[in-house]
């Protein structure tokens, strides 16, 4: 077990962050597929109003696809600060930016705490895409956003609310059981519905929130389902036959063109 304590047992209390610090190779490769940039993501990013020459933060940059898009959007002289707790993600982001000739305007930060290693009022925008679900204390993180943003700057958070994820034809009760077994992998699984209140409580103004849902009939969310199944297996609280059956049901439906899934995204933009 990659994310285990000294006795070879998973530490359920800290797994939600530990499993991002060390990531096994097969999950890294799934993230390379899951996080590839798609034109559909432009709709999610549009409310952030990214402009030329801005300084933008990418919290939880992952393998670097979003950071590279941001670098292109803030050209010719804008900069991107990419933050992540995983060293491999930092290196993958570096390599992608170098391959595109964009690395001179990229600053990489390997995080060891939830305090961002940049001065006050440094950023015009900060993007947190599918990150808030994992942070220790969402209230403190929003206060950190206020600290690093310039007056008039914006935080743009995009996240799920896992109770609202649906994959058909997996029976809803089985999918709910799988999510419950994997709950240790997420600090705040219902973070989507909380984003508006978090921004308001932290003193942000002009808080706008939208819910966007793109239907998936091509199996995009199956990588997510496999990750959830992996977390459930590590917990050891759910029968393996049921876990395998859930995945087999989804895979068979995809092969028969009967698969349908949706993961609504809560898209919140707020101004300092």
What is the topological layout?
Elements: H1 15-21, H2 25-34, H3 41-45, E1 55-59, H4 65-73, E2 79-84, H5 87-99, E3 106-110, E4 123-129, H6 138-148, E5 149-159, E6 166-168, H7 172-181, H8 195-201, E7 205-212, H9 222-235, H10 240-255, E8 260-262, E9 265-271
Parallel strand pairs: 1-2, 1-4, 2-3, 4-5
Antiparallel strand pairs: 5-9, 6-8, 7-9
Form type: globular
What's the end-to-end separation, in Å?
Answer: 42 Å
Which radius of gyration do the C-alpha atoms yield? 19 Å
Give me the side-by-side strand order of the main sheet.
3-2-1-4-5-9-7
Task: Explain the overall architecture.
- This protein is of the alpha/beta class and 272 residues long.
- Helix 5 (87-99) links the parallel strand 2 and strand 3 (106-110).
- The chain is globular and about 50 Å long.
- It has helices at residues 15-21, 25-34, 41-45, 65-73, 87-99, 138-148, 172-181, 195-201, 222-235, 240-255; strands at residues 55-59, 79-84, 106-110, 123-129, 149-159, 166-168, 205-212, 260-262, 265-271.
- Strands 3-2-1-4-5-9-7 form a 7-stranded mixed sheet, sandwiched between helices.
- The mean pLDDT is 93.
- Helix 7 (172-181) packs across helix 9 and helix 9 (222-235) packs antiparallel against helix 10 (240-255).
């Amino acid at each position: 077990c990659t994310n285990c304590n000294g006795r070879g047992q998973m530490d359920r209390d800290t797994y939600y962050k530990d499993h991002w610090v060390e990531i096994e190779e097969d999950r890294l490769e799934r993230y390379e597929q899951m996080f590839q940039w798609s034109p559909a993501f432009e709709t999610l990013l549009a409310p952030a109003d990214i402009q030329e020459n801005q300084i933008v933060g990418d919290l939880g940059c992952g393998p670097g696809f979003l950071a590279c898009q941001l670098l292109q959007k803030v050209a010719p002289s804008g900069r991107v600060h990419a933050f992540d707790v995983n060293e491999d993600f930092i290196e993958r982001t570096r390599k992608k930016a170098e391959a595109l000739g964009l690395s001179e305007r990229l600053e990489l930060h390997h995080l060891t705490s939830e305090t961002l290693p940049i001065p006050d009022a440094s950023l015009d925008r900060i993007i947190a895409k599918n990150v808030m679900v994992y942070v220790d204390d969402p209230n403190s993180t929003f206060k950190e956003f206020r600290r690093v943003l310039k007056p008039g700057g914006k935080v743009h958070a995009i996240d799920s609310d896992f109770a609202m994820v649906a994959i058909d034809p997996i029976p809803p009760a089985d999918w709910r059981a799988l999510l419950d077994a994997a709950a240790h992998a997420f600090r705040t699984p219902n973070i989507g519905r909380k984003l508006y209140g978090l921004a308001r409580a932290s003193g942000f103004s002009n808080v706008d929130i939208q819910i966007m849902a793109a239907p998936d009939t091509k199996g995009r969310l199956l990588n997510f389902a496999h990750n959830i199944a992996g977390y459930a297996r590590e917990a050891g609280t759910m029968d393996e036959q049921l876990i395998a059956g859930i995945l087999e049901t989804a895979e068979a439906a995809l092969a028969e063109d009967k698969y349908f899934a949706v993961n609504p995204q809560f898209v919140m933009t707020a101004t300092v």
